[in-house]
Amino acid sequence: MAEPLLQAQIDINAPVAKVWSLVADLSKMPQWSPQCRLMKTLGGPLRQGSRTVNLNRRRFLVWPTTSRITEFIPEKKLAFRVNQNGTVWSYELEPTATGTRVIESRHAENGVSAFSNMSVNALMGGVPSFERELVDGMNESLSRIKAAAES
C-alpha cells in the first residue's frame, strides 16, 4: 500500500523568483530528477489545466506517463497529477530570511492505482523500497535545483 504522502524539502539561498523560474520550466525536469528523462508541456505556456507527456527511466526500465497541471500559482506552487497512477506531485515555494524553502511532495491520499502497485511490486522491488527511492530522488532533485539557483 502506498504511503499517502512522500516529502522532502530544502532551503535555497536564492530569491523565490529565481527558484520558481527553475521549478516551473518543466523541460528542465530531467536535469533535476534522477528518474525523469523528458517532461514536455503540450498546447502553449504552462498553466493550470496544461497537459504534459513524460518519460521516466529506472535502470533498465523506461516508461511513459502523462499528467495534467492541477495547480499553478506563480512563485508559490506547481502541482501535477500523473494520469497513470493518480498521484499528485507538487513543488511549494515559500520565502525565508535567506531565500526560498522548496517542499517537494508526492500525494497519494486516494492510494495508487492497482495496476501501478502491481507493476511496482513486479518490476521495481516492491512499493516500500520504490517509495524510499522516490524520496531519495526528491532530495537529489532539490539538491540539484539548489545548486543551479545558487550558482
Report on this structure.
With 151 residues, the chain is α+β, with helices and mostly antiparallel strands. The chain has one domain (5-150): Alpha-D-Glucose-1,6-Bisphosphate, Chain A, domain 4 (2-Layer Sandwich). Helices cover 30% and strands 40% of the residues. It contains four helices and seven strands; from the N terminus they run βααββββββαα. It has helices spanning 16-23, 29-32, 114-123, 127-150; strands spanning 5-12, 36-42, 51-58, 61-73, 77-82, 88-96, 99-107. It has a seven-stranded antiparallel sheet. β3 and β4 (61-73) form a beta hairpin. The longest helix is centred in the last third of the chain and has 24 residues, at 127-150. It is globular, with a radius of gyration of 15 Å. It starts with a strand and ends with a helix. InterPro entries: Polyketide_cyclase/dehydratase (IPR019587), START-like_dom_sf (IPR023393). It comes from Mycolicibacterium rhodesiae (strain NBB3). This is Polyketide cyclase. Pfam families: Polyketide_cyc2.
